[in-house]
Every structure is written in structure tokens, then in C-alpha cells.
User: What shape does this take?
Amino acid sequence: MKDLLRLRTSLSEEIELLLNEQIKTEAYSSAVYLSMASFCNRNGFDNSAGYLEKQSNEERGHMLKIFKYINDLGGRAISPEVTNVPQEFESFRGVFELALQQEIKVTSQLNRLADQCMKMKDYTTFEFIQWFLKEQIEEEYVARRILELFDVIGEEGTGRWQIDRNIPKVSYGEDAGEE
Ligand code: FEO
Assistant: This one.
């Protein structure tokens, strides 16, 4: 039965496994962004909470995109189990340091996936994940710019309040960095 099912997909078991791992990572990112949103909300950083909720939804969107890809190709997309989601963070700044770290981890994982696609000559999946790699340029950029706000504005006095106001305005593109 297993072999018959396998015949219905052009995905190799190895690539399917890696794609399912990526689903799990995106789901984890979505869950962490959501817990970050809750932390920011509890600490009075409402704008950041809104931004992080939006990020959480985007990550869920990424997860679903891969989920659909696997199933569209006749593979077996697995609804991921997400565990060990941190609920507390060291500080407001700590939230965004962790966000950048998580995005860098996602980029390396996608690069490993791309590498494996080339090795296995799976050009369809290689092409599919280009969108994610491009998306990572934006996500890393935004995460870095947000961290810069902490240094540029400074956290003293009304600093954190100002940082919070500016976080949702950080974007990637021609208007990047403008208020
Ligand atoms: Fe979908 Fe930011 O990784």
C-alpha cells in the first residue's frame, strides 16, 4: 500500500520529509510570534503586539503554502506538532533579538532544503522554495531594522514608547526606513 501511494507522487521521501520539517518550523515561528505578541501586549507595547500578530499570521500562511504544495503533488503533508513555545521573554528588546535569530535559522533551513533539491534533481521543489528564500531577505531585513531602532532611539525615558510606535512602520522596499 505504501509503495502504491508513493507511486502517486513525484516527491521523493527525502524531500517530502524536509518539506514537512519546514512546515513544522513555520508553525513554530507562527506560535512564537503569537506568544511574543502576548508578551508585548502584557507589557504595554500594543503596536508591537499588532505587528507580531501579523507576523504570526504570515508564518501560518507560509506553513499552509508548503502544506498545499506537498498535497498538490500527491504527497503527505503532516499537520505539525508544535511544542516548547516560550511564553516569557527576557525583555522588549529580547523579543526582537529572538525574532531575528529565528529568521536566520529559517533561512539556513531553507538553504539546506534548496541544496538537497539540487542534489536530488528536484527542480520543481527548488523552484517552489525560491519564493520563500526571497521572503527571507525581507524578513531578515525588517528584523534587523527593528533591532536598530533600539540602538538609534535608545530605551531611556520615552524611548521604548517611541520604539513601539515605530516598529509597525518598518518595511522592506523603497520606503524602507521612513517614518
Ligand atoms: Fe516563514 Fe519567517 O519564516
Q: What stands out?
A: DSSP finds six helices and no strands in the chain. The radius of gyration is 18 Å. The chain has a mean pLDDT of 93.
